[in-house]
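Mods, move this if it's the wrong board.
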Amino acid sequence: MPIHSHPQVSRESFLLSNLANKLSNPTTLADFQRKTGLSDFYWDVLYDKSRWTQPNLETALAEAEGYIFFIHGWDASHQIWEDLPLRLLLQKGRLVCFLPDVNGFGKSPFIKDIPTANDCCPSALMIAFELWMSTIGLWPVKNRHWKPFYLFVGHSMGGAALFYKAERGWQNEAYGLYAIAPALLCNDVQLKTFYKTLGFGIGLPSFSFLKKRLAPQVIEVLGGGASNLVKNEHIRIFNNTPFGTLAQTIYAMGAKATLPQRNDWSNLRIALGNKDKLVSLTSMLELVEQFDVHADQLRVALGDHYFFSHGSQSPHSHRHNREVVLNDLLAFCDQLESNLGI
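Not the wrong board. Structure tokens:
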């Protein structure tokens, strides 16, 4: 069974709006809302209290060896990561894990029930995420007393967003990108059409009558091999998210699939499922070949879009995949630590 809590691990929850009076600039929240279209931003922070003599978040943030960010995908929330962040913390040094709700889902809704496609495509998700980092003081600054490494882990839409991670300001930082089943559809005409059509259909007024009936079918395509916890969370988010957000975010993945531009792809790792119906294995491999990504940066697992999630009804391979992904993240942390000379 997934581990969702542990006596050693502290979990604290935050809303950007609740921190507004503590931010140095009183207009910061309004600026964030204006630039992102989001009315608020929610995140959980996890850290292992046993790693510090003064076990509090302030100390953990100031002395952490690494920050790990988990970015979920479409129609999801921070809950889809199950026990992965906890197990990473329990096995690896002084880390702080951040689990946000992003792109209009969960407790980070858009201001408008129908956001613009430009506000909710994967590249916009990354811009909003990095603006949040800057707003709360997580963006790297020069002349720091302590310099942590950064590891960004994204799934599906969140995985696609990692391809648009800013390079400017990060040239001298140790950071990595781990994209799991990234829904990056730049060169996949068939899937782009599917995503745009599905997004358009969800946005139709008549869809409201079919919402409860179709939700389980949509979720089965999205995460057929996932645990019941993940499936139930998708259904909960589906039923509590405005049609406009559901429609525009999936439409934008097809309509706004612009080719990412980076000078250096060496810090990217990609994990794909061979039976993924939402991310074509062949198309993704052909796409990343354009980015000068090498074989040692790629992993293909036996499973579907949620090949790293395992429950009682999941394929046996998913249990193995979950351990492989955990070990990949641990090894990536080790590599980033060595880059810093920790």
